[in-house]
Amino acid sequence: MPKYYEEKEEDGRACSGIREDFKACLLQHDCVIKEGKMPSQCLKEGHCRALQTSFFECKRSMLDTRSRFRGRKGY
Known about the structure:
By secondary structure, the protein is an all-alpha fold. The protein has five helices and no strands. Keywords: Disulfide bond.
């Protein structure tokens, strides 16, 4: 779910909304907080998989020439 903040500064990069949610999901997951593992280790275990897939699709749509007509995926 996207998170919106009133006093958040605008990030002009592509896929910034998904990037922020993906980062927050990883850093706030029990795998990182309680078990003390690195976020990369938690990704390999399959945590936050839906956001990882969405972020990948958004980045891939930047390279797709059809996205000129359809627009970038993501928020």
